[in-house]
Design a protein that fits this description.
Layout: H1 2-18, E1 21-30, E2 40-43, E3 49-51, E4 57-64, E5 68-73, E6 80-84, E7 88-95, E8 105-106, E9 114-115, E10 124-127, H2 128-134, H3 139-146, E11 150-153, E12 160-163, E13 166-167, E14 171-175, E15 178-179, E16 183-184, E17 187-188, E18 198-205, H4 209-212, E19 219-225, E20 232-241, E21 245-255, E22 259-270, E23 278-280, E24 286-288, E25 297-309, E26 314-327, E27 335-351, E28 357-373, E29 385-403, E30 408-423, E31 432-447, E32 452-463, E33 467-480, E34 483-494, H5 498-502, E35 505-508, E36 514-518, E37 526-538, E38 542-554, E39 557-561, E40 575-581, E41 584-599, E42 602-615, E43 628-639, E44 643-654, E45 667-678, E46 684-693, E47 716-726
Parallel strand pairs: 1-7, 14-19, 36-40
Antiparallel strand pairs: 1-4, 2-3, 2-5, 5-6, 8-9, 10-18, 11-12, 12-13, 14-15, 16-17, 18-19, 20-21, 20-47, 21-22, 22-25, 23-24, 25-26, 26-27, 27-28, 28-29, 29-30, 30-31, 31-32, 32-33, 33-34, 34-37, 35-36, 37-38, 38-41, 39-40, 41-42, 42-43, 43-44, 44-45, 45-46, 46-47
C-alpha cells in the first residue's frame, strides 16, 4: 500500500513539474517613471510575447516552467533584458532613452540577429521612426529623402534604382527575407511595397552572394514589416495631395493564444501630369505632345499572413499577396499598361534552448505584364488584353543557426530556386526555366572578449545553365571603446537574366524611334570582387560613420549596337542592339553619415555619397550615375499637453547624372512634414499631419522624353490622417 502511495505521489510530482505554468505581468516605464505604450515584451527564443497598453502594462500567461530572458523594446529606447524563472506580478522594466539606432536589431548583414552597433558587417538601417517622420507614400521618395546611397532614375515605365553605382538588377530586394521578383523594363515594381506597414529597412552594400545568391552582386535591401503583438490592432492611414495623389492603407492584426492573423491593404492613385507640352521628334524638331511622364495610375496590394504558435519553440506560417497596377495612357498610344502579381509562402521556425534557430521557407512570386488596348487595330479591339511577359520565381530555403561553443555561431543552409520566363517577343523558343541549387556556410567568431569578430563564409552554386561556382567572403570588426572598425571582402556572382539569353525585346522611344534588343545565348555570368573599410564613432549624442569601397565587376552585361545593321531588320526597326559582356567595370566610392542629438527633441542627420565608375571598354563613366549626393534631415519632437508634435525638414542635393547623349540635371529637393499624435483614449489614437513636398518648386521642365532628374510636378501640399486602435 505504501509503495502504491509513494508511486502515486512521485507521478504527481513529475506531472506537476512537466505541466507547471508561469505568468508574468508588470509595467514598462522610462527612466523618469512614465509608462511606455505599444512596447514589445517577449521571452527570448520563444514565440511568447505581447505589447503594453496605454499605461505601460503587460501580461504573459500559460508559460511552461523554466528559465527565460524577458525582453522589452520600443521605438526611441534601448532594449532591456531580465532573467526570470518563476511567476511575477509587479515586474518593472525600465527603458533608457536612445536617440540613435545603434540598439536596433538587424539581420541582413549576417542572416542572424545582431544589434546594429555590434554587427560585424556594416548595415545601414532606416527605422520606423524615420519613415514616419518623413511621411512619403512611396518607397522611391522615402529613400530619396533618407539615404544618399540610393538613387532613382525616373521614367514613365518605373524608376530604375541604383545602389552605390550599380542598377536595380544587381540589387536584391527582399520583404521579410523573401525576394521581390518580376520586373518592368529591368526595374523591380516598387509600388508593390506597402510603406505604411514597415518596421525598418536594412541596406547591405556590396556583394552578398555568399549568403543571398545571384542577384546580390551590388547589395541587399531588406524590408522588415511590422507585426503588433496586441490582441487586436487596427490602423488606417489616409494621405491626399495635389494632382489627385491619394494613398489609403488599412492594417488589421488579431493575436490569439496560438493563432494570429495579419491583414494589410494599400491603394495608391494619381491623376498624372505633364512637365512640358513639347517633345523632340525623330528629326530633332520641337513639336506639341499629349504624352505625360507620369500617367494616371492606380495600384492595389493586399497581403494576408496567418501564424500558428504550436508551442513555445515551434512557429508556422502561411502568407499570400495580390497586386495589380494600371497605367492609363492616352488612346493615341493605342494601349495602356497593366501589371499583376501574386505570391504565396509558407514555412516554419523552430527555436532551441541553446539559441539555435532552424528556418524552412517555401515561396513563389508570379508577375505578369499585360497590354490593355484603348484603340481598335487590325488585330485587337478596345478592351482586349494581351499577356506580353510572365515571370515566375520559386524558392525553397532551409537554414539553421547554431552556437558552437562560447565563441562561434555557425549558419548552414541550402537553397533551391527556379526562374521562369514566358515572353511574347521570344518568338523562337516560347517559355524557359532554369534552376539553381546552392549550399552555404558561415561562422561568426567572437574573440578578445567579443572585441574582435570574424565572419568567414562561402556559397557553392550549381546553375543549370552555367554549372558550378564558389563565392567566398570574409568580414572582420574590432571594437574599441566608442569606436568600431570594419573591413570586408566578398565575391559576387550573377547569372544572366533569362530574357538576356532567350528573349528579343522590342521598344519604342519617346521620339518614335524603334529598337529591338536581341538575346545572346553566349553570355557569361557577371562576377565581382568587393572590398570595403568602415570606421564608426558613437556616444550618447553623436554617431559618425565613414565607409570606403571598391567594386571590381567583370563581364558586366550591357546593350551595344549591332554592326553592320542586320538586313532582316531593315525597314522594321531604327536600331538593332544585342546584349553582350563588357570586359570590366571598376566602381569606387565613399559614404559618410552623421547623426547628432542636441536635446530638447532636436536631431540632425547628414549624409554624403561619392561614386566614381569606369567602364574599361569605353573609358567612360557608367550611365545614370551621379558622382555626388547629399541628404539633410532635421527633426524636432515636442510633447505638449495631450499630444506630441513632430516636425521634419529634409532635403536632397544631387549632381548631374551622366548619359552618353545628354547629362541629366542636378537635383535640389526640399520637403517639410509634420504629424501630431494625440494621447490614447481607451486604445484609440489619432494622428493628423500635413506638409509641403518640393518646397522650392524644383521642376525638370525640359521637353518630354529627356532623361529626367525628377518627375515632381513642383510644390505640392498634402494632408494626412492616421487612426489606430489597440486592445
Amino acid at each position: 500500500m505504501s509503495r502504491k502511495l509513494f508511486s502515486t505521489a512521485f507521478l504527481c510530482c513529475i506531472a506537476n513539474i512537466m505541466f507547471a505554468q508561469m505568468s508574468l505581468s508588470g509595467r514598462v516605464v522610462t527612466e523618469s517613471g512614465k509608462p511606455v505604450s505599444e512596447a514589445n515584451v517577449w521571452l527570448e527564443y520563444t514565440n511568447i510575447g505581447t505589447s503594453t497598453d496605454a499605461n505601460g502594462h503587460f501580461s504573459l500567461s500559460n508559460i511552461p516552467g523554466g528559465k527565460y530572458i524577458l525582453r522589452a523594446s520600443s521605438l526611441n529606447y534601448e532594449g532591456v533584458r531580465l532573467q526570470v524563472e518563476s511567476s511575477g506580478t509587479d515586474i518593472q522594466l525600465v527603458l533608457k532613452d536612445s536617440p540613435f539606432k545603434l540598439n536596433e536589431v538587424v539581420v541582413t548583414g549576417t542572416g542572424t540577429h545582431n544589434k546594429l552597433k555590434n554587427s560585424p558587417i556594416a548595415v545601414d538601417i532606416i527605422s520606423q521612426k524615420e519613415l514616419q517622420n518623413v511621411s512619403f507614400p512611396s518607397f522611391e521618395n522615402m529613400m530619396m529623402a533618407l539615404t544618399p546611397s540610393l538613387s532613382f532614375t525616373p521614367n514613365a515605365m518605373g524608376s530604375n534604382l541604383q545602389l552605390n553605382g550599380l542598377s536595380n538588377k544587381y540589387v536584391l530586394i527582399l520583404v521579410n527575407g523573401k525576394r521581390l521578383a518580376g520586373d518592368v523594363s529591368g526595374n523591380i515594381d516598387l509600388s508593390r511595397i506597402n510603406m505604411q506597414n514597415i518596421k525598418r529597412i536594412e541596406i547591405l552594400k556590396g556583394s552578398a552572394s555568399s549568403l543571398y545568391g545571384s542577384e546580390a552582386i551590388g547589395g541587399v535591401i531588406n524590408i522588415i514589416t511590422d507585426k503588433p503583438k496586441d490582441q487586436i490592432y487596427v490602423s488606417s492611414n489616409t494621405r491626399y495631395a495635389e494632382w489627385g495623389q491619394f494613398t489609403q492603407s488599412l492594417n488589421i492584426d488579431i493575436n490569439g493564444e496560438w493563432l494570429s492573423s495579419s491583414t494589410s491593404y494599400q491603394r495608391n492613385q494619381a491623376h498624372g501630369w505633364q512637365l512640358n507640352p513639347k517633345e523632340i521628334n525623330k528629326n530633332g524638331q520641337l513639336i506639341d505632345t499629349y504624352k505625360q511622364p507620369v500617367n494616371p495610375y492606380y495600384s492595389d496590394v493586399l497581403t494576408q499572413k496567418f501564424i500558428v504558435d504550436a508551442n513555445k519553440s515551434l512557429s508556422m506560417y502561411v502568407e499570400g499577396s495580390l497586386f495589380d497596377r494600371k497605367l492609363k495612357r492616352s488612346s493615341d498610344y493605342g494601349y495602356s499598361l497593366k501589371y499583376e502579381d501574386y505570391s504565396i509562402g509558407t514555412g516554419a521556425k523552430y527555436m532551441l534552448k541553446n539559441k539555435a534557430v532552424i528556418n524552412l521557407d517555401m515561396y513563389t512570386d508570379n508577375f505578369d505584364y499585360l497590354k490593355v488596348y484603348t484603340a481598335d487595330s487590325k488585330t485587337y479591339k478596345v478592351g482586349d488584353e494581351t499577356l506580353e511577359r510572365r515571370q515566375k520565381y520559386y524558392d525553397v530555403n532551409l537554414k539553421g543557426s547554431f552556437n558552437a561553443g562560447n565563441y562561434n555561431r555557425v549558419t548552414l543552409g541550402s537553397q533551391y530556386q527556379v526562374n521562369y520566363l514566358d515572353s511574347k517577343s521570344d518568338i523562337a523558343d516560347g517559355s524557359r526555366n532554369v534552376y539553381t541549387l546552392s549550399f552555404y556556410a558561415q561562422d561568426e567568431i567572437r574573440l578578445l572578449n567579443k572585441k574582435l569578430q570574424l565572419v568567414p563564409g562561402i556559397r557553392y552554386v550549381y546553375n543549370e545553365t552555367f554549372k558550378n561556382r564558389l563565392t567566398p567572403k570574409m568580414a572582420a570588426m574590432y571594437s574599441l571603446n566608442h569606436f568600431n572598425f570594419r573591413t570586408s571582402y566578398s565575391s559576387g556572382y550573377r547569372a544572366p537574366d533569362l530574357k538576356y539569353l532567350f528573349s528579343n525585346t522590342e521598344s519604342k522611344a519617346s521620339n518614335g524611334k524603334t529598337t529591338i534588343a536581341l538575346a545572346n545565348r553566349n553570355l557569361d555570368p557577371e562576377s565581382s570582387n568587393y572590398y570595403s573599410l568602415n570606421a564608426e564613432y558613437f556616444n550618447s549624442f553623436l554617431n559618425l560613420s565613414v565607409s570606403g569601397y571598391i567594386n571590381d565587376v567583370r563581364n558586366l552585361i550591357k546593350l551595344v549596337d549591332v554592326n553592320p545593321f542586320p538586313i532582316e531588320y531593315e525597314g522594321k526597326f531604327d536600331n538593332v542592339k544585342q546584349y553582350t559582356n563588357a570586359s570590366k567595370v571598376k566602381i569606387k566610392g565613399l559614404d559618410i553619415n552623421l547623426n547628432s542629438y542636441f536635446g530638447y527633441g532636436l536631431s540632425l542627420a547628414l549624409g554624403y555619397s561619392y561614386v566614381d565608375s569606369k567602364d574599361y571598354d569605353t573609358h567612360k563613366q557608367l550611365e545614370k550615375i551621379s558622382r555626388h549626393t547629399g541628404t539633410v534631415n532635421a527633426n524636432w519632437n515636442k510633447k505638449w499637453w495631450i499630444f506630441d508634435s513632430n516636425v521634419n525638414f529634409n532635403g536632397r542635393l544631387q549632381s548631374k547624372r551622366y548619359y552618353v547623349a545628354e547629362d541629366g540635371r542636378n537635383i535640389n529637393l526640399w520637403n517639410l512634414s509634420t504629424r501630431h499624435r494625440f494621447n490614447s483614449i481607451n486604445g484609440l489614437v489619432l494622428e493628423p499631419g500635413f506638409g509641403v513636398e518640393n518646397i522650392f518648386n524644383f521642376v525638370d521642365d525640359r521637353p518630354y522624353g529627356v532623361n529626367y532628374a525628377t518627375l515632381s510636378p513642383g510644390r505640392v501640399v498634402y494632408i494626412s490622417m492616421s487612426i489606430k486602435f489597440s486592445k
